Amino acid sequence: MLAETLTTGLLLIASASALPVMSPLEYVKRAVNPGVVINKCSQPNMLALAYDDGPYTYTSQLVDILDKGGAKATFFWCGTLYGCIYRQEAAVKKAYASGHQVASHSWSHNRMGSMNANQIRTEMTRVEDALVNMVGVKPAYMRPPYLDTGGQFLNTMKTMNYKVITNDIDSGDWNNVSPQQAQQRFQQAGARGNGHIPLMHEVYPGTVNTLTPWLINWAKQNNLKLVTVAECVGDPEGSYQPGNWTAKVGPYNC
């Protein structure tokens, strides 16, 4: 019996030693699951600037500010909220070409927690089609309008292989909070611990021209790397759905 026990123990040790050694980042990557809400980076020393509701008039200018500051950001875009997404095709291509992450904020910016599964899929696939037509990728990340994750939404996101992002800091720009007041919110949250994913909107000039440059400087002062949402959650290669996608022949419309 003792011999059998010793043999079993040796076999277990040998099996364990044969297992691949994974870094903490590799363990983090395995935890980024579709249909699960993520509101904060999984790693410290990072800040994931994330903007909703575009593309819009200020998108190109925002890309210039980010690029000048050496920052990468994530754009959660709609199809029709501020006009047809195809009207901003140049800005969409510019953001993607600059290495920023392009993601989905639904087609029409309605509450998807109140929709059935088919309606939710339509909201998502229309954004997918638009981004394939313009830059050749389907996003794997999305942020729901109004941060509404109720009803059939999360189950549908799981079947569509979407990682769901919310936020841990609200800039309040959507609610008439000034850039200066928003800066105080970041200072109160602090730069320690796992990185922040803020809720911001690229459709407000104060967010683009005042808050964003301040955040770039604040990040540098606190030794924070400005990264995409995918990178901040340990999924730098997972920004987009796997596959090769073919653009439809234009002209495109909404």
Automatic annotation (TrEMBL):
<keyword id="KW-0119">Carbohydrate metabolism</keyword>
<feature type="domain" description="NodB homology">
    <location>
        <begin position="45"/>
        <end position="227"/>
    </location>
</feature>
<protein>
    <recommendedName>
        <fullName>NodB homology domain-containing protein</fullName>
    </recommendedName>
</protein>
<keyword id="KW-0170">Cobalt</keyword>
<keyword id="KW-0378">Hydrolase</keyword>
<dbReference type="InterPro" id="IPR002509">
    <property type="entry name" value="NODB_dom"/>
</dbReference>
<feature type="signal peptide">
    <location>
        <begin position="1"/>
        <end position="18"/>
    </location>
</feature>
<keyword id="KW-0479">Metal-binding</keyword>
<dbReference type="GO" id="GO:0046872">
    <property type="term" value="F:metal ion binding"/>
</dbReference>
<dbReference type="GO" id="GO:0016810">
    <property type="term" value="F:hydrolase activity, acting on carbon-nitrogen (but not peptide) bonds"/>
</dbReference>
<keyword id="KW-0732">Signal</keyword>
<dbReference type="Pfam" id="PF01522">
    <property type="entry name" value="Polysacc_deac_1"/>
</dbReference>
<dbReference type="InterPro" id="IPR011330">
    <property type="entry name" value="Glyco_hydro/deAcase_b/a-brl"/>
</dbReference>
<dbReference type="GO" id="GO:0005975">
    <property type="term" value="P:carbohydrate metabolic process"/>
</dbReference>
